[in-house]
């Protein structure tokens, strides 16, 4: 085994808000570097290092790119590369919760994201339960950047309500399922 020596350790960027962190790992999306962070409130956040964005003040601040409520504490995520040639510069982050759940984070194309988000917005809420709000953090930040794949699989017939064909939605879901089929 080869050892690695770090000559210097320097501060890359920071976030102004304090956070009780349980685990951190990298999230790679083509040429963008992100940090996957789980916290004490059973939430998962993705912070991006985007020095060209004006909100980051030249890279001094990390930008919160996505966040959602997992509902359970999690330990260290496992990062692996995607299994498709279209996704060769993207990494999948698998995680297990301390109560036995398994989940993953996968960066996806913006066009696919918006199509699946439209489908998620027209889903009916039975017995007054809103499944989507469970995944949202209890803070007033951007919360529209996550999709629940299991919930979307149940409602392919609603594709007509968002003016698209169910075949396109099914192709998006099958592509995502094929990329993440490691087991």
Automatic annotation (TrEMBL):
The top of its lineage is: Eukaryota, Metazoa, Chordata, Craniata, Vertebrata
Give the matching Gene3D superfamilies: YVTN repeat-like/Quinoprotein amine dehydrogenase
Q: Could you name the Gene Ontology cellular component terms for this entry?
A: nucleus
Q: Which residues form the RSE1/DDB1/CPSF1 C-terminal domain?
A: 8-156
Which residues lie in coiled coils? none
The source organism is: Pan troglodytes (Chimpanzee)
The protein depicted here goes by the name RSE1/DDB1/CPSF1 C-terminal domain-containing protein
User: Which GO molecular function terms does the record list?
Assistant: nucleic acid binding
Q: Where is the signal peptide?
A: none
